[in-house]
Structure formats: structure tokens, C-alpha cells
């Protein structure tokens, strides 16, 4: 299936609100040209600049608003390049700094997205210089990339750093595996320019990446997910089924061993120290891409739950994104809570959040010939080839989706994602009940002319066994929304929750000393409405 172009969607509603707040945050002082090149980046050349350029470019395309400082950043960037056209150190032949390769992934991605948007020949030359002079010379080094835990430092920090002397020609980071981050940008470079030398480098990297014991090596989930997104893109370009097969296997491993109860992430495989929205966004994009390529319901469900609960909890009131405790770990226990020292990861996650938000709406509607699949729902105006509509939804809080189809040039089969265990599905066409068919989690409807469609269903409370918990427990779900209870101490629910008058909220009959009126299970995705002090003081029990 094919995703929409940015220009085919005008986001509205809650998604637009989140995008605008993030956009405003990324035009704050930390992201302006007079500071962006001078802020201490802990040895990540290209990272801060690249993530910012990428974020501003995607937000500009998805909102239609010109960035305030992007052109000034680019002007300053040109003067920062070394004699070979990239940033900072020029290493001897046969040596590589994985943080330099990783940081330039984001710079290259930003330049490529900028080139796709503006078609500027100078931007293309900058991108080509980075590939020619930084990336192609490391061909042959990935076979010697150190994976032995004895060669690595496990003293990681929210901003990783180079630890110790070089090993096998590699300067290694505490962000284990970040050398493979650039599979993301290099696959996009190959997609655009079809440079076969880059294909050879990609093949070498992928051969070695696929052999990694991700748990044993304690690979960083952000780096691993970004790399796998690159592998999936390489599949989309080449059609090589083994690449898709690896992406499917890796995502399964990530869900089982690297994901938290609220569909966030453990920062490293096997080390649940904190969550990282960079990886949450990567997982959202990977799940969306896997659904695009396979049509499998589970990937659409995962993408919806990652967006609502992982990204939804991680976005702060200033529009940026921050890190949290990993639910079910020894330190977090049964609670969802925020970490004070990384309340906002403004050096990476606030920028990466932009890619998730900017792509959400365009990845929610996919086309294949005369079929239109709705993998998720976001208010907005959508213009496809021969088919255009305005969308309004009450999801994820209650089950209604309304389409005002303005143009329909011939029959279209519409596939509507239905949250698991939804009941009492009703379809209306122009206000009159109509028929459709539920198959494999999607409600199928055929339309042949402009009309008004409304799909209604009832979301019910679901009690599920927890996946990532030290001791056995359960979670409560309302459709794709994880529910939690604000409480200072862990409580035991002795009666089944009951629906309240408010959507997606349930009163608890009894909860360890609290009255029923005080005990309310509610969604955890409203961090954007809570200030820093509230978030730091707030503890939400989600495991029972």
C-alpha cells in the first residue's frame, strides 16, 4: 500500500495541536543558529543540527508554515563543514567513530528531506559530500564492529558518550549499536539517488546487523529501531523479501523484549533504565511501515497504541518530549512516572517527536489501486487521487468516525480499522443505516459517489495480563487507551471498574482506602496538558 504525501493532508484537531506545540518548542533558543552549533553535544557531531533540520523540514511540510530559523541554520551550517564536507574530526583511514556516524545520520536525513521538499541543488551536493567522504570510506569496517560485552561500557547516560580507547578501529559509544543508526539515512539516500556503492555498504551493514544478539549485546533500542526502519525502506526500494522478513522478526523481538506496558521502550535491550521517545517514535514509524507492507492488523494496532500511550504520555506541556520510568522495572514497579533529570530530552527526543507527529496523518490513510485503508484516525482534510474527504473522529476516547466525502471518481473500497473487542458496529450513509463487513479487524465499505459516512462502535473495558512486570499483574484498556489510577501507593482493585459519564473513564468500586468517587481509572495520554511540577509529582498505577 502507498502512504500519502505531506501535501495531501491538512491535519486538524488534537494532532494539529500537538504538532503546533512541538513546532513552537523547536524554535526556542536551543534550536536557533546562534546556539545550535555551540551547545555541548557530548561528541555527537551532526546530531543536534541534523535532528533540528529534519524536524523543522517535516513540520513545515505537514503544517504548511515556513520555519522561522531554518534558512539561517543552513547558512551557518555551510561554514561549519570541514574540508571534506562533514562536521568535526577527520579520522585516519581504517578508523570510525560510531557517534560521528550516528550523528550524521540525522544531518543526512534532514538534508535529504529538505532536498525532497525544495529540490535545492546545493543541499543535494552537501548530502552527497557526507556520503562520499564520511560513509563510503567505512566500507569494510562493519565486519569488525565489536559486539563482545567485554569490549563495551555499560555506564550509559541519557546522552551517550565515547567510552575508552578504540577497539578494532572503532571508537565505541555507551549508546551500544549506534553505528547502525545510519542505515536509516543511507537507505533513503539510495532510494533517491540509486548509488550502487551505497547499496554495497548497506548490504555489508545489514549482514552484520542481522547477526547481532540484541539482548546479549544490550543494544540500544533507538539505534536498533532506526536501523530496522532503514532496512524496511531498503526493502521498499529493492523488493528483497528477506529484508522484510528481518524487519518482521526484529519488531517481534522488540515488542517482547524491549517494549513497556504503555508501548514505550526500554532504553537498551535487557536494561530498563528509562524510556526514550526517540525510540518510541521509531517504533511507531516501524509499526506503521510494517502495516503498509503487510496489511496485518497487529501492526496497525501497535501503531495506534504507541501513538496514544507511548508518544501521548511522553509529550510535555511545552511541546517537547521527555523520558520516563520503565513500567514493571525494579525502580518503577507498578507506576508510570516521570524522571526529573530528563523531564525533557531537549537534545534529541523533542526533535524526534516531530517526525512521529508530522507523519501520523499521512501514514493513517493508505491506498492500493481502488482500495483506501484507514489504519488510524486523525481529524483533517485529505486529498487523494480522485478521492477527497474531511475526517472527524472521537477516537481514541469513544467510537465514532465521520467522513464527508467531497470527491469520489468511481468505486472505492474503504477499510476502517476497528479497535480490538469493539462492539455494536453501525454504519450510516447520508444519515441512513447501511451495510458493511468486518474482516480481520477492518470494517469494509464500498462507496461510488460523494456522500457522508459515519461509523460507530462501542469501546469496552478490557482486562489484560501484563507483559513486562516483575510480578504477575494485569492492565486495563479502553480500546487502544491504557488506563491508570492516580495514587501515591499501590492499591488492589477489589471490584470490577464501572463506566462513568465521561468517555474512557471508569470508577473503581473499592481501592485500598479510597472512596469510589476518588478512584477513577483514566487514560494516561494527557501529559501535554500537565505542567512540569504536576508531572513530576504524579504517580499513575497501571499494573494491578
What tags apply to this protein structure?
single chain, 544 residues, alpha+beta, Glycosyltransferase, Immunoglobulin-like, 3 domains, 8-stranded antiparallel beta sheet, 7-stranded antiparallel beta sheet, globular
Q: Outline of this structure?
A:
The protein has 544 residues and is of the alpha+beta class.
Can you offer a commentary on this structure?
Strand 14 and strand 15 form a beta hairpin. This protein has 14 helices and 23 strands. The strands form 4 sheets. Strands 5, 17, 18, 19, 20, 21, 22 and 23 form an 8-stranded antiparallel beta sheet that branches. Helices cover 37% and strands 18% of the residues. Helix 1 packs antiparallel against helix 13. The longest helix has 21 residues, at 98-118. The chain is globular and about 70 Å long. It has 544 residues and is α+β, with helices and mostly antiparallel strands. It has 3 domains: 2-149 and 165-367, Glycosyltransferase, CATH 1.50.10.20; 385-418 and 423-458, Immunoglobulin-like (Sandwich); 461-541, no CATH class. 49% of the residues are buried.
Amino acid at each position: 500500500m502507498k502512504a500519502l504525501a505531506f501535501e495531501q493532508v491538512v491535519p486538524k484537531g488534537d494532532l494539529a495541536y500537538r504538532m503546533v506545540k512541538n513546532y513552537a518548542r523547536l524554535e526556542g533558543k536551543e534550536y536557533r543558529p546562534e546556539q545550535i552549533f555551540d551547545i555541548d553535544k557530548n561528541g555527537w557531531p551532526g546530531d543536534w543540527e541534523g535532528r533540528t533540520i529534519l524536524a523543522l523540514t517535516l513540520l513545515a511540510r505537514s503544517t504548511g508554515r515556513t520555519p522561522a530559523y531554518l534558512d539561517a541554520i543552513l547558512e551557518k551550517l555551510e561554514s561549519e563543514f570541514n574540508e571534506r564536507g562533514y562536521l568535526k574530526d577527520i579520522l585516519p583511514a581504517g578508523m570510525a567513530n560510531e557517534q560521528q556516524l550516528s550523528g550524521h545520520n540525522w544531518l543526512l536525513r534532514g538534508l535529504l528531506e529538505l532536498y525532497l521538499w525544495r529540490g535545492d541543488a546545493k543541499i543535494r551536493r552537501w548530502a552527497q559530500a557526507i556520503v562520499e567522504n564520511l560513509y563510503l570510506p567505512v566500507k569494510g569496517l562493519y565486519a569488525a564492529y565489536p559486539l563482545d560485552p567485554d569490549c563495551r561500557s555499560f555506564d550509559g547516560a541519557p546522552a551517550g558518550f565515547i567510552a575508552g580507547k578504540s577497539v578494532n578501529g572503532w571508537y565505541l559509544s555507551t549508546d551500544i549499536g549506534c553505528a547502525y543508526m545510519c542505515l536509516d539515512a543511507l537507505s533513503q539516500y539510495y532510494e533517491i539517488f540509486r548509488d550502487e556503492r551505497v547499496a554495497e555498504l548497506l548490504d555489508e551493514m545489514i549482514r552484520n546487523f542481522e547477526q547481532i544478539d540484541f539482548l546479549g549485546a544490550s543494544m540500544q533500542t533507538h539505534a536498533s529501531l532506526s536501523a530496522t526502519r532503514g532496512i524496511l525502506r531498503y526493502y521498499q526500494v529493492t523488493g528483497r523479501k528477506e529484508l522484510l522478513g528481518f524487519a518482521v522478526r526484529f519488531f517481534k523481538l522488540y515488542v517482547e523484549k524491549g517494549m513497556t506496558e504503555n508501548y514505550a521502550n526500554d532504553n537498551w535491550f535487557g536494561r530498563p533504565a528509562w524510556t526514550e521517545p526517540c525510540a518510541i517514535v521509531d517504533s511507531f514509524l516501524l509499526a506503521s511501515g510494517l502495516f503498509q507492507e503487510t496489511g496485518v492488523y497487529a501492526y496497525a494496532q501497535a501503531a495506534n497504541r504507541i501513538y496514544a500511550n507511548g508518544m501521548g504520555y511522553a509529550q510535555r506541556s511545552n511541546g517537547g518530549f521527555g523520558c520516563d520510568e520503565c513500567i514493571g522495572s525494579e525502580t518503577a514497579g507498578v507506576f508510570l512516572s516521570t524522571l526529573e533529570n530528563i523531564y525533557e530530552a531537549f537534545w534529541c527526543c523533542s526533535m524526534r517527536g516531530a517526525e512521529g507527529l508530522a507523519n501520523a496523518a499521512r501514514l493513517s490513510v493508505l491506498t492500493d489501486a481502488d482500495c483506501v485503508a484507514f489504519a488510524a484516525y486523525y481529524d483533517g482534510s485529505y486529498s487523494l487521487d480522485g478521492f477527497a474527504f474531511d475526517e472527524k473522529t472521537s477516537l481514541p476516547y469513544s467510537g465514532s468516525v465521520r467522513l464527508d466525502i467531497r470527491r469520489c471518481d468511481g468505486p472505492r473500497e474503504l477499510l476502517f480499522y476497528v479497535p480490538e473487542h469493539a462492539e455494536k458496529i453501525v454504519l450510516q450513509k447520508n444519515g441512513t443505516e447501511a451495510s458493511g463487513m468486518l474482516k480481520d479487524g477492518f470494517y469494509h465499505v464500498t462507496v461510488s459517489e460523494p456522500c457522508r459516512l459515519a461509523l460507530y462502535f462501542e469501546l469496552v473495558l478490557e482486562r489484560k495480563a501484563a507483559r513486562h512486570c516483575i510480578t504477575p499483574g494485569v492492565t486495563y484498556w479502553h480500546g487502544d487507551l491504557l488506563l491508570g489510577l492516580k495514587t501515591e501507593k499501590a492499591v488492589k482493585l477489589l471490584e470490577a471498574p464501572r463506566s462513568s459519564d465521561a468517555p474512557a473513564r471508569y470508577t473503581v468500586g473499592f481501592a485500598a482506602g479510597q472512596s469510589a468517587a476518588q478512584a477513577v481509572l483514566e487514560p494516561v495520554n494527557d501529559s501535554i496538558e500537565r505542567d512540569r511540577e504536576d508531572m513530576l509529582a504524579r504517580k499513575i498505577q497501571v499494573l494491578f
